[in-house]
Design brief:
Blueprint lengths: L2 H9 L3 E2 L5 E4 L4 E5 L6 H16 L6 E9 L9 E5 L23 E3 H5 L11
Antiparallel strand pairs: 1-2, 2-3, 3-5, 4-5, 4-6
Amino acid sequence: MTAVAACAVEANNFKSLSYGARAYPHDGVVFEVVPPIGSTRAAFWCAGSEYARRFLGAGWQTPFYVVRGLGTGEVSGRKDTVLFSLEPVGAQAQSNGIFQFNGFNPGSAKTVQSADTDCDPFLLDLI
């Protein structure tokens, strides 16, 4: 299989989430969250919570962590994506050396339950 074909297959390997978001699995428990264009910060945490719970089997009190803040998707190619992991970040953290005030700094974390509260349609600018 050529590299281009491999990327195309990988880009089609996503899970559909609530409110139009998508998540793309990476190695192990790392995943890329891609909410709809123009989404609020809450949409990233909401989608991350749903993916961790539904597809990785995380419990409500399980924390998940930012591996890489807002940036171009490694699988999706979309401009605004965030990488999350169920494992505390360490060597896998990808920092550009700039502190981001959007709450997506490598190592930032929420529990699945806490992030699920970001799924309120008012926070997601859906109402």
